[in-house]
User: Fold C1q domain-containing protein from Perca fluviatilis.
Amino acid sequence: MKISVSFTLLLLLGSVPASESVECQQASPPDIYAALREMTASLVQLKANMVTGQAQLKTEVNKLKQQLQVRQVAFSASLVVEGESRTGPFPSETTLIYKYVPTNIGNAYNSNTGVFTAPVRGAYHFEWHFAGDNSRGSAGWLVKNSQKVFAVYEQQGTGFLGVSNGLTLLLEVGDVVFVRLVATSVVFDNFNHHTTFSGHLLFPM
Assistant:
């Protein structure tokens, strides 16, 4: 009887598939080197992405700084740096060149030509002041490109005179603005800087 039972158990054990005896086998150890290689590759890619992101961020910051600098535009100038000078009369209208420039943010005003050049499209405000004496009248135009826009004029019998004007203009990039002295007129300036030309960007558009 014992022999038949043992034989039956052997037959049953032999019929069990290998897959069902997994619990009886020890699992194979994981490939730790493959995992390390994968982690290293991920870290290298992450570092590359960070470097690329930092470069893009630096480029964007530089662009914003440049745009901000372009939008910072303001200048003030007078005719003479020192001493005193009477400018005019001339046989024809003459562009005044304001040599003393205490403020020129954005470098849009050129002290060699007397011309302001708009660096960005926007609304700009300008003012100009003439000083003179009783020898002749003082008259001039603010000119946009080749168009006379606003004028100043003053004449009196005795003493010094002063006259001024101002306006706001919509300018495109590259538009120029300057002041012309009317023929036969005279303007006066000295170290007190009476005859001036100023402008600034109100806002870009």
Remarks:
- The helical segments are 2-14, 32-70.
- The radius of gyration is 42 Å.
- The longest helix spans residues 32-70.
